[in-house]
Design goal:
The termini are far apart. The protein is 27% helix and 40% strand. It has 139 residues and is an alpha+beta fold. The longest helix has 15 residues. The model has no long low-confidence stretch (mean pLDDT 92). It contains three helices and six strands. A six-stranded mixed sheet has the order 2-1-6-5-4-3.
Length: 139
């Protein structure tokens, strides 16, 4: 990336830092979009770090190699960006203690990112895990 991430507009920053690094498998580049002490939260992780986010992304990429996420709606309000997204893929390896199913799924979710000095300082992510588990046939 030739541009300093803190110079990006908020929507582009969130798209690159929360979605595209996952889609491209470039999770190592995730750190450049976050403050040094950024907080990441999702089911099972409260007050996590960017490294927790990277670990989660790696787990998803291994279990769902064709994983793809797309933002479908974005709302920017000051230093906070809320976005709706859809994630889809086929589970090929173990995911959260679920043996490989070979089943494709699609699930919607919501992310909220708070910016500080042009970078993501807090990122909270929720998505329809139950719906995904139903599609995978495990509930």
């Amino acid at each position: 990336m030739s541009k300093d991430p803190s110079d990006l507009d908020p929507e582009t920053l969130v798209h690159l830092g929360c979605i595209e690094t996952l889609n491209r498998g470039d999770v190592e580049k995730t750190h450049q979009f976050y403050t040094d002490d950024a907080i990441y939260s999702t089911a099972g992780i409260e007050d996590g770090t960017v490294e927790d986010l990277v670990d989660q992304a790696r787990m998803w990429q291994e279990a769902v190699p064709d994983l793809e996420a797309d933002i479908t709606e974005t709302v920017v309000g000051g230093d906070e960006i809320t976005f709706e997204y859809v994630v889809r893929g086929t589970q090929k390896d173990e995911l959260a203690d679920i043996p490989p199913t070979g089943v494709s799924f699609e699930a919607k979710g919501v992310g909220v990112a708070t910016l500080e000095d042009g970078l993501i300082d807090e990122y909270t992510l929720v998505f329809d895990r139950f719906g995904m588990f139903q599609q995978l046939g495990v509930v």
